[in-house]
Write a structure and sequence with these properties.
420 residues; mainly beta; Porin; 14-stranded antiparallel β-barrel; 4 helices; 16 strands; 7% helix
Length: 420
């Protein structure tokens, strides 16, 4: 039976996660750079180096071996995003800041519980991705746009998990994925003339959709010092954003792309653990994200089948991290993550609304064991400013010239872990 107190705490955090205003992330493209405070302190490494219950969101097989625990966390996330436009003949030139909304507060929770020696269950509620820009001074004002411009995408994953031991030191796990997401667009009124549904492209408030997918994972131990793991997450098929059917290709379709990866960790000493992850995110499988702007100039409007999108490419992500147990009460972490930039230089114009271009992430963190059943973990993350300089980025019908988009990020967070 699930303990009443952990279950009530989990429900409270689930409610806060689903109602958190403007929860936004943009690290590995628009996905988180790690799952849980411990992983985030170690560069995001978690596939074969699980340390808390949130790790089952990276690899469901990790539920075996974590014992019974509840982890409640929160992150404060501060992005710095914007665009510099030059050489434009239609009045768009200038330096534009998309930082009208900052900072963002994001809660998460996770709970795992063994069911005998060979089975374990768990659940995680967390933000898997998101993007926000808010231009108080609208870059499209010279086109006749009114009010602020920007987007607000929020994605919450609810992932119940079942894991089983298939042999000594080896486990597999499966997580059905329930997606809840919302989206809002403002301030792009001049582009409605290029939409298949002009009244359903901008300034329609928040729209919500739900979806479902699956994640499977494997975790194995080789000897006493080495662990290996892998996961696959299907594309999460989601309902359409009906209020924005004139924006996203396929009448408002916005699925979550498939991803997969593998990792390894090694303990060279009793106190030190080193880990590394590789992940592939397949943005090309989601037309609303992957389609370039070019179809617009071949007569295919926004919102139509095969219509324009943001032009994002598939990306590779590599993470490395170190965990050092300084004492029974103190554990230290550090890490680095490198992700490809999904935004081509030719697609920066539309991506001033979604400049998910950072590539380098530096992290540090620590855990303090307060008692046998209570620990406190914290971390910091910084992604230095990355600029993608446009090349042929603003089409001639919009005045030509170049849009150079940039993004930098800083985040800090903590979690409380209850061990039973």
């Amino acid at each position: 039976m699930v303990r009443t107190r952990p279950a009530l705490a989990a429900l409270a955090f689930a409610a806060s996660a689903l109602t958190a205003p403007q929860a936004a992330h943009a690290t590995d493209g628009y996905f988180l750079n790690g799952m849980g405070a411990k992983a985030k302190g170690a560069g995001g490494v978690a596939i074969a180096m699980p340390e808390d219950a949130v790790a089952i969101a990276a690899n469901p097989a990790a539920a075996i071996g974590l014992g019974e625990r509840l982890d409640l966390g929160v992150e404060i996330f501060v992005p710095s995003r914007g665009v510099d436009i030059s050489g434009n003949g239609a009045g768009l030139n200038g330096k534009w800041s998309g930082n009208g909304a900052n900072p963002f507060i994001l809660p998460e929770f996770a709970y795992v519980k063994p069911l005998g020696q060979s089975l374990a269950v768990g659940i995680v509620v967390n933000a898997n991705g998101g993007m926000n820009t808010n231009y108080d001074a609208n870059p499209f004002a010279s086109f006749g746009a009114q009010g602020e411009a920007g987007v607000n995408l929020r994605q919450i994953f609810i992932t119940p998990t079942l894991a089983g031991r298939i042999a000594e030191g080896h486990s597999i796990g499966v997580s059905p994925i329930v997606l809840l997401q919302s989206f809002a667009m403002t301030g792009i009124q001049p582009f409605t003339q290029a939409s298949s549904a002009p009244t359903r492209m901008t300034n329609n408030g928040d729209d919500w959709s739900a979806g479902a997918g699956i994640r499977v994972g494997y975790l194995g131990r080789i000897g006493k010092a080495v662990s290996v793991g892998a996961f696959y997450q299907s594309k999460v098929n989601a309902g359409r954003f009906d209020k924005y059917a004139g924006l996203f290709a396929g009448k408002g379709g916005f699925d979550v792309p498939a991803s997969w990866g593998f990792g390894a960790s090694v303990k060279p000493t009793d106190r030190l653990t080193l880990g590394a992850d590789y992940k592939r995110i397949e943005y090309s499988g989601v037309p609303a994200v992957a389609n370039p702007l070019a179809p617009l100039f071949s007569g295919v409007p926004f919102g139509a089948e095969g219509g324009p999108g943001f032009g994002w490419q598939d990306i590779d992500v590599i993470k490395v991290g170190a965990v050092y147990r300084a004492s029974d009460a103190l554990t230290l972490r550090a890490g680095y993550g490198r992700s490809d930039n999904p935004v081509p230089a030719s697609q920066t114009f539309i991506n001033l609304l979604a400049p998910g271009v950072v590539t380098d992430h530096f992290t540090a963190g620590a855990t303090v064991r307060l008692s046998a059943g209570l620990e406190l973990s914290g971390y910091v993350m910084h992604a230095p400013r990355k600029t993608v300089r446009g090349t042929g980025s603003i089409p001639l019908p919009y005045g030509g010239g170049e849009a150079d988009v940039h993004l930098a990020e800083t985040a800090t967070g903590f979690s409380v872990g209850f061990l039973f």
